[in-house]
Specification:
single chain; about 625 residues; alpha+beta; Nucleotidyltransferase, domain 5; Actin, Chain A, domain 4; Substrate Binding Domain Of DNAk, Chain A, domain 1; elongated; binds adenosine-5'-diphosphate; binds magnesium ion
């Protein structure tokens, strides 16, 4: 997954409106930047942070509260205050059980399988919640600019976001009244912010340690063209875990001093979490920090000094987890760390000195940190927005599909149409045909994944092609075209060539995949390569047998009339065995049954060939032969 950049621009946007915003819609924070005076600039209101916490609070009455004010409500009303909304974008309930286990929200599913979070008995989709965050970001941008900010935007997403997650991000922006010019990968944006597209050649690593997630992306740049070589990460590693390490330390000591029940309620837990986060941030710039917890309602005031050494020892295992992902990304890219020309730090947690030191040591070079790591993605999005509104028209950012896409074929096998790591936009067409005589419709099942059987892949959608004129099996010519647009949204079209009958589907958000799932699916495709091969072979053999059974049964009358007793008996037995084997799905048994069946049907084939030859001969005069 990732992207490539080409020196073309397909559709410059008409300049009816001045400029466009770049928006980093983050798990923890969101912010906007814009191109001004020849460079990208973060939009911040004097005296305020540019970062809008991606948090929505629903008071019992009145309008929802978003951003910093919402974050402050987390202590008093944890259940009515929604964090980490990005984790739910484009996902179904089944995808996010792990997230829900750690968050105090009630959740349900829409009939389309999309998750909804419940507050005060009302249900909100992640798109609606993200729209509230985006609206807040836009409003902040307008206040910073002193006029209404542009409504055309470029929004960033993690490189591993699949098409349903990207689509959900687009929908959120639309709900917020924004027009999305493009969805761009976060590592791409970060590289653009550093102007790394200007360098002529080299490999760049983007290390992004945010609030709740970590990802590392290896990009090659050549003559302004970026290509993702690999990406790895951990969807549950980020600043929250660093806070949690301090919380664990503090809890034990508070419990010892004041009794365990002090920290039982959710509000106190939030207060402690925030106190620990403040201490962590302090430790990034000072050798000592302090956890200072004050809960007036409980008459609790507690302080604990933490040294940088103590903190670093606590979080060393977390830092090492991120390094394991770096090692993975390097090995996937088949590169040694010495080959890396530049390293870019992204995400607030990359400010931690121990993290920087470890990254520098691993890659053997000082990482870029001249730009604020929590602003760099928004800055890059503003560069991209500027390019798209025609200010600079030399780069187009494209993505690469994370997993292969294909359709289920007869017998449950998968025919891959777009291979994983294909650059998007892309399209590919493959020919299919009917399985039965006079079949007038085909069901298409679109799947994503590397496994050989559809049942082991992720289902993306189904649609039907109707109106195929009746004809013998195998005669219809159906072209199935997969097209992925620049935002990674997939459209599948099927068309029967003879009649022109066609049908298509836009793959709508149904289920999303986490990067962990993508990794899992890739890993399982290797793990199961042998089983899959067997299963695929079984599926293909069963299909083949099905076709043979159909042909033989159709000609059984001819066989009874024309075959000798022994051949007929042999054929009937082989037919029965083949049907039984097709039900069992054991590749070995299938192979044996297929071979026997083929052998047993040879006399019938010869008979039919003779008949056909005779018919052909009878239709012609002798001298033609
Ligand atoms: P996301 O991209 O997930 O929205 P950010 O890049 O905004 O996240 O990073 C947020 C995380 O960075 C939070 O966990 C926050 O505590 C942490 N953070 C911010 N500043 C610092 C700092 N100076 N030192 C350590 N951690 C920091
Ligand atoms: Mg981020």
């Amino acid at each position: 997954m990732g992207y490539i950049e080409l020196n073309v621009l397909n559709q410059p946007v008409a300049p009816q409106q001045q400029g466009a915003l770049g928006i980093d819609l983050g798990t923890t924070h969101s912010l906007a930047a814009i191109w001004k005076d020849g460079r990208p600039q973060v939009l911040r209101v004097e005296g305020e942070s540019a970062l809008v916490p991606s948090v929505v609070h629903f008071p019992r009455e009145g309008a929802p509260v978003v951003g910093q004010a919402a974050r402050e409500q987390a202590i008093a009303a944890p259940k009515d205050t929604l964090f980490s909304i990005k984790r739910f974008m484009g996902r179904g309930l089944g995808d996010v059980q792990q997230e829900l286990a750690t968050l105090p929200y009630a959740a349900s599913e829409t009939e389309r399988g999309l998750i909804q979070l419940e507050v005060h008995g009302r249900k909100y989709t992640p798109e609606q919640l993200s729209a509230l965050v985006l609206r807040k970001v836009h409003e902040t941008a307008s206040r910073a600019l002193g006029e209404t900010a542009p409504t055309r935007v470029v929004v960033t997403v993690p490189a591993y976001f699949d098409d349903t997650q990207r689509q959900a991000t687009r929908d959120a922006a639309r709900l917020a009244g924004l027009e999305v010019l493009r969805i761009v990968n976060e590592p791409t944006a970060a590289s653009l912010a550093y102007g790394l597209d200007q360098r002529d050649k080299g490999v760049v690593v983007v290390y992004d340690l945010g609030g709740g997630t970590f990802d590392v992306t290896v990009l090659s740049i050549e003559e302004g063209v970026f290509r993702v070589l690999s990406t790895a990460g951990d969807t549950h590693l980020g600043g929250d875990d660093f806070d949690a390490a301090l919380v664990t330390l503090a809890r034990a000591e508070i419990a010892a001093a004041h009794g365990a029940e002090v920290l039982a309620d959710a509000g106190c837990q939030q207060a402690l979490r925030l106190a620990c986060e403040r201490c962590k941030i302090e430790l990034s710039s000072a050798p000592r920090g302090e956890i200072h917890l004050v809960i007036p309602e409980r008459r609790l005031a507690w302080r604990r000094e933490v040294s940088r050494e103590e903190f670093e020892a606590l979080v060393a295992p977390l830092v090492e987890r991120s390094m394991a992902a770096c090692r993975q990304a390097m090995s996937d890219a088949k590169l040694a760390p010495e080959r890396i020309a530049e390293v870019v730090l992204v995400g607030g947690s990359s400010r931690i000195p121990a993290v920087r030191a470890r990254v520098a040591a691993f890659f053997g070079r000082k990482p870029h940190s001249e730009l604020n790591p929590d602003e760099v993605v928004a800055l890059g999005a503003a560069v991209q927005a500027h390019i798209l509104v025609g200010g600079k028209r030399d780069i187009l950012l494209l993505d690469v599909t994370p997993l292969s896409l294909g359709v289920e074929t007869m017998g449950g096998a998968v025919s891959k149409i777009i291979q994983r790591n294909s650059t998007v936009p892309c399209s590919a067409t493959e020919g299919f045909t009917t399985y039965a005589d006079d079949q007038t419709g085909i069901d298409f099942h679109i799947v994503q994944g590397e496994r050989e059987l559809a049942a082991d892949c992720r289902s993306l959608g189904r649609f039907k092609l109707r109106g195929i004129p009746p004809m013998p099996a195998g005669m219809a010519k159906v072209g199935v075209r997969f097209h992925i647009d620049a935002d990674g949204v997939l459209t599948v079209t099927a068309k029967e060539e003879g009649s022109g009958a066609s049908a298509s589907i836009d793959v709508q958000p149904m289920h999303g995949l986490t990067d962990a799932e993508v990794e899992g699916m890739l890993a399982s495709s290797f793990e199961h390569a042998k089983d899959d091969f067997e299963a695929r072979r079984a599926a293909d053999l069963a299909t083949e047998i099905g076709t043979m059974v159909h042909a033989v049964e159709k000609n059984l009358n001819a066989a009874r009339a024309g075959l000798d007793k022994e051949s007929l008996l042999d054929l009937e037995e082989a037919l029965a065995r083949a049907k039984a084997a097709a039900r069992d799905r054991d590749a070995r048994a299938l192979q044996k049954a297929r071979d026997e069946f083929e052998r047993a049907s040879l006399p019938l084939a010869a008979l039919l060939m003779n008949n056909v030859a005779q018919k052909a001969l009878m239709g012609r005069s002798l001298d033609e032969v």
